[in-house]
Specification:
- Helices cover 37% and strands 30% of the residues.
- With 232 residues, it is an alpha+beta fold.
- The protein has a domain at 34-189: Alpha-Beta Plaits, CATH 3.30.70.1230.
- The strands form two sheets. Strands 3, 4, 5, 6, 7, 8, 9, 10 and 11 form a nine-stranded mixed β-sheet that branches. The chain has a two-stranded antiparallel ribbon with strand order 1-2.
- The termini are far apart.
- The model has no long low-confidence stretch (mean pLDDT 91).
Length: 232
């Protein structure tokens, strides 16, 4: 890779062979799982975080019925375009991570702006997927969950690589990842805490079949088992 190619990546190749990262690249790394180690070990509680979890519906069957070239083509297009969507509509997010046939996007604080960004990311990408990505594969669809709750942010060093690993854990992430599995194509599930903030309209369902499905999910609080809330 020559110096021009490094510059395109936001990197400056110096005469001694070392690489210098520009401020924009460094700022972008702060939202990713891997970053440059700076001797800071972070551990923070985010009591009011906003978590968006999206997932491709029908992807397991898609894997079984298509060749590797088709699979690679779809998943690379899905992930690259989703990252572009996050950079355009979710620029205020704190973190994002790809999850194979899905993704996780986190805002450290829930407020009117972060909720608007999260909804823009989901609705914009839902429209793109339906119009551009999934038409050849009608079995596929996009669904997700948007949750407001407590999570923990931490960083650890990656030893000799001079890198550090950043991640989040907590009830909010567990809840988002579990309840998104109950959303059908085109649906965005939200939790009661977020729905009660009245940032947007919701539809409440106490359908016995859905409540039964909720009861089977592990690690949910009682208030998150009584009804399903959908963004409308």
């Amino acid at each position: 890779m020559d110096s021009k190619e490094f510059n395109l990546l936001g990197l400056n190749l110096k005469e001694d062979g070392s690489v210098e990262l520009d401020p924009t690249t460094l700022e972008g790394l702060k939202k990713m799982p891997i970053d440059i180690f700076d001797n800071v070990y972070l551990g923070e509680v985010k009591p009011d975080a906003l978590i968006l979890c999206i997932d491709i519906r029908g992807f397991s069957n898609f894997l079984c019925s298509h060749d590797e070239q088709t699979v690679f083509s779809l998943i690379t297009s899905f992930t690259s375009n989703f990252l572009s969507c996050v950079n355009q509509f979710g620029y205020g997010c704190s973190y994002y991570k790809l999850l194979g046939d899905g993704a996780l996007v986190i805002w450290d604080q829930t407020n009117e702006d972060s909720v608007a960004e999260a909804l823009s990311v989901f609705t914009s990408y839902l429209h793109f997927a339906k119009e551009e990505l999934f038409p050849p594969y009608p079995e596929l669809g996009l669904a997700g969950a948007l949750v407001q709750d407590l999570i923990y942010k931490y960083e650890i060093s990656a030893e000799t690589s001079l890198l550090k690993y950043r991640d989040y854990v907590g009830y909010g992430i567990n809840l988002a990842c579990r309840v998104q599995g109950l959303a059908e194509k085109d649906q965005l599930v939200v939790n009661k805490i977020l729905a009660d903030q009245n940032y947007f309209q919701t539809r409440i369902s106490k359908d016995p079949a859905l409540i039964k499905d909720l009861s089977r999910l592990k690690g949910l609080r009682e208030e998150d088992r009584n009804a399903m809330y959908f963004y409308v």
